[in-house]
């Protein structure tokens, strides 16, 4: 084909290479943070929030904060308070980044807790109890995942139904009674301290660390972001979106199983009403931590900070002898503030549109 | 380049013809045809047609009474806009007159889209002056710009998928009475606008989600036309449109300018600028390198040189002597999806580039997606290396060595918030991983290689894809499949929005892949691209392959006749 109109003489004009290089260098300089830059910035904001909360504590109860022993003890109390919900939140974070939501986490914790404390299960000893709790959590998570990805139920509906069903089953199994755990090993999980720090906190740290590696360093994490960020693009890139969705809910269920063991240990018993409204705490912590409710973005560290902020608020109210009602109002306000901050940060056109799309879907 | 000139001649002939009646006949004919089922509903089509006759008599947009042709309506002086680390605009001058079509030219990333976003109130300039109709203006938000009479069609579709066509067209300025949206009025106005746009078959009540990419582009246009605008900005509107649609678009632009409305038109296709443009402003690296050149008289080499700082030959790579001996990689037999395409059979050999030409809505994209397993065929088989592929499974296709660059980059291909390298390796990161642990350094290196071969700008692969210009995002989509073990590449509009220089690179990359034994199946709305790049060409019309021939045996007019004349004939009442 002849291209006489646009064919140009082969000789080139002088190129502004130096200038291009300069622009490239500038771009490199400010984008050195590359991936995760935004997330890191947000986490700094969360840390600042935490500092503010501590300062409020110091200002309102200078008497208590004057005692270093009390401060250390109180810090451990806060972390212990955060540990159970923290483990649940790690699973929840994966589900939300993957574009879903899991309303059944509290119910799964209750079901797993009740199931692992039946007389029959307890006869297998502590190993049997832990195995049962994890298996029940995992199994319920898989059912959630199957309903959503192969049954094509909306995650909200599927897990809402599971919430009701799992609590019902837990009540059925326990006959609405409180089941006492007689295993000293299990109960010891809540009381054991290593180097002065409760075992529960170690468990939280381990789950958070595992979650961080899973999200940031593995193909599983990469798929999670892809599936949540743009399911169609993920599918057309050859990722098995449905299978991955099942795995995400299974992971959330597994985290609930771990949390069930921890909570049972703390209470030395289990009952169908335990872990009430954990789903709200976990979702709120993830959102405050910067996880996008529409999927595709979020960090484990952010979620952890979200949980810690929540338990710090609870603690702040407790040391000031204030009511739980006022505390819930403040928590509500913090959730709204967190979402508002996110909106201010991402005002650009594309984000605005993406949000419109997310809210209308 | 005799072809190219012929092509624009062909186009120029169009507006002279009685296009409207042609149009209506065709859309009548299209009703219920396999190619267009999603966009046509019998009753809607009929009503739309009535509307056509009425609306030809009244102007499409109420022309502002005081619009004087030739008067300068917009002047930009030294406008600067920076993003973190990038000076996207670095001293832009622009002058637009009422009633003219002012074209913006520039390479991918030159700052064209950023410039129009400044005009549309999306971005605020850091410095410089924007004078709109004699008054200094910096619009605080898109609403302010719209109120001032500036309507914009963005490069990336900005529709709300779950609202109807009419709701999208009037989003943010719904006609109201006593606080209630006048739905009937809105639907009627939308139908009028769509009819004038040549698409009476799009029902105003249909959810945008259910429209194909080209249909969405039409709705974007309808949105811009639903305002009382004095300036309409179009950012690469033709990139999603097929050949005949572009003619239609130009007719509308002429109607608009005749009423004294100014149009800013962005395109990477030089022949379009020649045909529709009055004056051209060229941007390079965020700076105006030439202002208000005459669009028809300025030689192409001058324009290209000002855009790129170098001379670029816009030619297709040499086609190797056809040997036809490569092993058949892909074999498609009797593939059918009701209402989309029927009984399609084709083969692609190793090292061969097969092009598919056809109108938007002829079932090309659907065919590609079905071969790839993204849609499930109702009949027929897809074989790779003689083995039948599991239908409806993308995973199976990818494992068999297939890759597809889909039509719509934003909704089908990209994770906008993720870094470039993760988008490039989206289909391959598993291969670089060890025991499930990803190897980010390796991924970055591979992505960097691809970025270099496609002249991605900026080159830093850790930047989020969101911050790339449209053409550069497209390169990321195509680049994804240049990695790894892709043996069969399905490309749907691979050069959409890619500039002249990068396009030549991309053609070369595709040809090189073929030389290495990769089979390529290419869909493009640009007939010269199909003819220039492919070894063999299939022409599709209304879901069927109507012609198959070596590219050398076809010329552009033959293909256009096959693609369009046919649908006209079939559209004629029996
Ligand atoms: N939100 C943003 N953040 C950072 N950089 C950006 C952003 N938007 C655009 N840029 C950068 O600004 C430059 C100009 O981009 P722009 O989209 O205006 O290019 P363009 O001329 O429209 O290119 P194309 O022809 O590919 O559409 C590019 O280098 C791009 O990467
Ligand atoms: Mg652009």
Please give a quick description of this structure:
The complex is a heterodimer of chains A (361) and B (574). Chain A is mainly alpha-helical.
Which SSEs are present, and which pair or pack?
The complex is a heterodimer of chains A (361) and B (574).
Chain A: H1 17-30, H2 37-60, H3 62-65, H4 68-97, H5 105-116, H6 119-122, H7 125-149, H8 155-174, E1 179-180, H9 184-191, E2 193-194, E3 197-198, H10 199-217, H11 219-229, H12 231-236, H13 241-267, E4 269-270, H14 278-288, H15 300-319, H16 324-345, H17 349-360
Antiparallel strand pairs in A: 1-4, 2-3
Helix pairs in contact in A: 2-15, 4-10, 4-11, 4-13, 4-14, 4-15, 5-7, 5-8, 5-13, 7-8, 7-13, 9-13, 10-11, 11-13, 14-15, 14-16, 15-16
Chain B: H1 2-16, H2 19-30, H3 42-55, E1 72-83, E2 86-97, E3 101-105, H4 112-119, E4 127-132, E5 135-136, H5 142-147, E6 150-153, H6 165-169, E7 176-177, E8 180-181, H7 183-196, H8 213-225, E9 231-235, H9 243-258, E10 262-266, H10 270-276, E11 279-284, E12 287-294, H11 300-308, E13 328-337, E14 341-349, E15 353-357, H12 364-371, E16 379-384, E17 387-388, H13 394-399, E18 402-405, H14 409-412, H15 420-424, H16 429-432, H17 440-453, H18 470-479, E19 488-492, H19 500-515, E20 519-523, H20 527-533, E21 536-541, E22 544-550, H21 556-571
The structure holds adenosine-5'-triphosphate (ATP) and magnesium ion.
